[in-house]
Amino acid sequence: MESTSADDSTRDRGPDEAFCRDCGAVIDARAEICPECGVRQRDPPKSSVDSALDDLFDGGNPFVAAVLSAIFPGLGQLYNRELERGLVFAVGFIIASVSVMVFVGFLLAPAVWLYAVYDAYTRAELRAEELRRKSERDRETDISVSEAADDETADDGAAGGEREE
């Protein structure tokens, strides 16, 4: 009596099916683990806390960037991973603060501070959009690579079946 996995690996896959990465069995395309061999097909899902922390530490959150720059000009730019811009704002704010002694800084220091907050916020929005586009491209690449691997597996299975006959 033949096992079901042998039958599954030789038959064609349907529209909502895929081949297991390890054993080649036909499984549901959404399956995270192959029911035949137990090999994980996808990364485990992330919790909302994990994704929130990743978003927070990856940069690109405009609110966090603005708050950091409000605390001290240049911190928001550092959060956005723009070292040179952050240093320029930090040094500019320090110089403007020192110039308070000659009364020019009363206008200059708040202007540098406000512009640093604005710049951190807008640059974080740009970074967030860039990260979104990159993750979409990576997701599309992963899908096309997995489909190509499935097609190669199907071709190998068909070629192997022809050789045995």
Describe the structure.
The protein is built from six helices and two strands; from the N terminus they run αββααααα. The chain is mostly helical and 165 residues long. It has a two-stranded antiparallel ribbon. A hairpin with a 6-residue loop joins β1 and β2. α3 runs antiparallel to α6 and α5 packs antiparallel against α6. The radius of gyration is 27 Å and the shape is rod-shaped. The model is unreliable at 1-9 and 161-165 (pLDDT under 50).
Summarize the structure.
This protein is mostly helical and about 160 residues long. Helix content is about 65%, strand content about 5%. The N terminus and C terminus are likely disordered.
Question: How is the secondary structure organized here?
Answer:
Elements: H1 4-10, E1 17-19, E2 26-28, H2 48-58, H3 62-71, H4 75-79, H5 83-98, H6 105-164
Helix pairs in contact: 3-6, 5-6
Share in β-strands:
under 5%
Radius of gyration: 27 Å
**Could you describe the largest sheet, including whether it forms a barrel?**
2 strands, antiparallel
Calculate the terminal CA-CA distance, rounded to whole Å.
20 Å
The SSE order reads HEEHHHHH
Q: Total helix count?
A: 6
Instruction: Show unreliable segments.
Output: 1-9, 161-165
| Morphology call | rod-shaped
- SSE-based structural type: mainly alpha
**What is the average of the pLDDT values?**
77
Number of strands: 2
Strand order of the largest sheet: 1-2
Helix content: 55-70%
